[in-house]
Amino acid sequence: MLDLFADAEPWQEPLAPGATILRRFALARAPALMAGIAQVATVAPFRHMITPGGYTMSVAMTNCGELGWATNARGYLYSPVDPLSSQPWPPMPEAFTALCHEAAVAAGYPDFRPDACLINRYAPGARLSLHQDKDEPDLRAPIVSVSLGLPAVFQFGGLRRNDPLKRLLLEHGDVVVWGGESRLFYHGIQPLKPGDHPLTGEYRYNLTFRQASYNE
Ligand code: SIN
Ligand code: FE2
């Protein structure tokens, strides 16, 4: 397919108060980010976490950074160790830290210092139902979300679960940043459509950078 935007410079689209989409912002670094994902996954493999309600998530996940997000019988938590190995999560690859910082600056959050990066892998059919990112204690810090590989429909709503949803296609290299007024807005990913991406094959990957500790 002819991609009219293949050589375009990244551009910015406002999404909501405090939220913006940096289109194609991660495109140039995508191969380095994918290499980072592969490296993390050799230490902390992708796994389908089981929710406290006993449901197996369709998205496969792993983490890097000082803290990682995981589920256990009592709920969701950030932990410095991978529950699969009881070892620390692998450090954030340099390409991750650099890209996240540049995106946060571009979106107006120059002081964002993530200590956790959740890595999601979507196979065809995988989805993430509508939720809030509310396990982080310091809601002054935004979320920086990087999309790689196959496109997916992102839903972005409001503070209430039944607020109207915007639906937008997130494509390879797109970065969404939300914070401030929209930090707790509901969001989700509709079931991934099958496809074949030159860099990621049959998958979509998503990195979400978070500050998961409370720093004065
Ligand atoms: C998330 O909500 O944590 C991930 C969103 C995405 O995969 O784009
Ligand atoms: Fe989320």
Q: What can you see in these coordinates?
A:
The protein is mainly beta and 216 residues long. The protein has a single domain (12-210), classed as Jelly Rolls (Sandwich), CATH 2.60.120.590. The chain is 12% helix and 34% strand. The protein has helices spanning 30-43, 94-106, and strands at residues 11-16, 19-23, 60-65, 68-72, 75-79, 81-82, 87-88, 116-122, 128-131, 143-149, 152-156, 166-170, 175-178, 187-189, 204-210. The strands form 4 sheets. A 7-stranded antiparallel β-sheet has the order 1-2-13-10-15-8-3, with helices on one face. The N and C termini lie far apart (50 Å). Residues 131, 133, 187 line the site of fe (ii) ion. InterPro entries: Alkb, AlkB-like, AlkB-like_sf, Oxoglu/Fe-dep_dioxygenase_dom. Its EC number is 1.14.11.33. Its cofactor is Fe(2+). It is an enzyme of class 1 (oxidoreductase).
Radius of gyration: 16 Å
The CATH first-level class comes to Mainly Beta
Content-based structural category: mainly beta
**Oligomerization:** single chain
What's the CATH topology label? Jelly Rolls
Q: How would you characterize the largest beta sheet?
A: 7 strands, antiparallel
Spatial strand arrangement across the major sheet: 1-2-13-10-15-8-3
According to CATH, the homologous superfamily is Alpha-ketoglutarate-dependent dioxygenase AlkB-like
Work out the strand percent: 25-35%
